[in-house]
Amino acid sequence: MGGHIFFQILVAAVRLNLFTELSRQPGMTLSQIASTLGIEEKPARILLLGCVNIGLIKKNKEKFKNSWISERNFNQDSSINIIPIVEWQNFINYRALYYFTE
Fold first, then answer.
1. Which pLDDT tens digits describe the chain residue by residue (102 residues)?
2. Deepest of 15, 60, 74, 89, by most Cβ within 10 A of its Cβ?
3. Number of domains in the chain
4. Residue at 17 is within a domain
């Protein structure tokens, strides 16, 4: 079950532009991230906890930054991002879970 949940965490983070925002403003706190993403702190905390747990972002004290893989692959500003592949997997292969981030 971990793989499915991990993928849904990745999709939520990609759809909310978490990795792009952390690339542009590394070292943001939970409250800064929640504000930047336009979500409340509790869902932001859950998303960040999941992303840290699976190695997509790093936490140092109360500040967050992208892991190298997220910086490269899930950041919209990266010329080699694989966001279209993530979206294809989610919207075609995981169609039943389309509303996970709402």
1. 578 889 999 999 999 999 999 999 999 999 999 999 999 999 999 999 999 999 999 999 999 999 999 999 999 999 999 999 999 988 877 676 666 666
2. 74
3. 1
4. yes
